[in-house]
Amino acid sequence: MSKRGIDLRLSLGQNVPEHASLELMETIDSIEVTHNDSARSGFRITFRAGRSREKTKADFILLKSPLLKPCNRVIIEVIFGATPRVLMDGIITNQQISSGGEPGSSTLTVIGEDVSLAMDFKEKSLQHDSQDEYTIVQKTIGNYHKFGLVADVVKPPISNRPDPAIRTPSQEFTDLKYLQKLAEPYGYVFYIIPGPQPKSNTAYWGPPKRVGVPQKMLTTNMGYESNVISINFQYNALTPFVVEGTIMDSSTNKLVDINDKASGRQSLSGKPALTTQPNVRVERYRALKGLDSAQARAQAKGMIEESADAVRAEGELDSLKYGTLLQARSIVKLGGAGNSFDGLYYVKSVTHNIKRGDYKQRFSLVREGVGVK
Questions:
Q1: Phi, psi dihedrals of residue 6, rounded to the nearest 5°
Q2: Nearest to residue 260, comparing CAs of 205, 187, 181, 211?
Q3: How far is CA 248 from CA 161, 296, 367, in A?
Q4: pLDDT top residue among 340 and 256
């Protein structure tokens, strides 16, 4: 599949994915891949499916393919010029057949999620004696080497190795849910990014990535230089909130007030977040059990930071003009939208829609307020 310099590569298999044949590639009708900062990434591949040429015509040809069976691994690569980028490394979870009345109108759609799904299959009852969160996360990720997971783990600023006489970390969840649970008290996140090489993935556990070098610039209202097809903005002053409450500190058994007002992260808009302004909404803080005051304040600050994004931009991108993949869970600069909405944004989600001769990326951007940084 090609669109004037953009090519597609598909690999499938039960254990080790191999490149799909030309015959299978030619049956692809469309591909949709969604990356989201708050949920598992997913994919949908639709194939044109004809009946078998056998006399009985008992089944669709593609249903007989062992490559498209549920639980098989799928790797989708997009090649811009000579540069391949891994768009998805996932697992098939579902097959859907649409039987059309006209010849050639039937389709087979395979649906799946990224390889973090493999970490969510089995609930476990484990104890992690004398191990802090950083050690537990590293160890858990290491159990999934078959998916080429490379750990990118950020040490929490207030994590301590537990005294077994006082507390033993206990897991009663799947590995995925447990890593997410360990992240909560620090305002951290856990997700898996495909690549950078095929059959490899980066498992990230740490704070949301809202700093660093911005991705290639998004441009609108710049004539031929524009790569954004359409974009709209929303500024909602009711989105941000601060938290107030009281917890029982697990280390001192004393009541501690939680009354955080300010976000600790750097404002992408260059202006103070609405959480620091008068008349902001106030929500009651309901702490997880077993937190000390430092962990509770870190969690409360994470809640405030998550709510602070009062500005949202929704749009669609011309992938050929942009020339690469727009990455969710990172930052990007926007130009051409005017002084109020130009500047840096956090990319909350990206949905890739690929058809023969057409490739667009729908995106959602957020930040704390209006104004250029």
A1: -110, 120
A2: 187
A3: 21, 10, 33
A4: 340
Q: Per-domain residue ranges for the chain?
A: 6-114, 122-206, 215-234+310-355, 241-307
Give the strands of the sheet with 149-153, arranged side by side.
149-153, 201-206, 189-194
Say how many residues make up the chain: 373
The structure tokens listed for 216 are 């290639």
User: What would the pLDDT profile of 1-13 be if each residue is shown by its tens digit?
Assistant: 444 568 999 999 9
Rounded distance, CA 351 to CA 87, Å?
11
Assess whether the region 6-114 and the region 122-206 belong to the same CATH fold: no
Query: Per the structure block, which two tokens stand in for 242?
Result: 């601060």
CATH topology of domain 6-114: Thrombin, subunit H (2.40.10)
pLDDT band, residue 103 (cuts 50/70/90)? low
DSSP state of 208: -
Owner of token pair 């089944």: 59
CA neighbor of 40 nearest in space, from 122, 111, 140, 123: 111
Q: Return the axis-axis angle of helices 133-142 and 175-183, rounded to nearest 10°.
A: 150
Choice between 357 and 341, residue whose per-residue pLDDT is larger:
341
Statement: residue 15 has pLDDT above 90 = no
Please report the sign of the dihedral spanned by the C-alpha atoms of residue 289, residue 292, residue 294, residue 295: negative
Q: In the prediction, which pLDDT does 5 show?
A: 63
pLDDT at 47: 94
Ramachandran area for residue 266 (φ above 0: left; ψ -120 to 50: alpha; else beta)? beta
CATH number given to 122-206: 3.55.50.10
User: What pLDDT shows up at residue 4?
Assistant: 53
Distance of CA 360 to the CA centre of its chain: 18
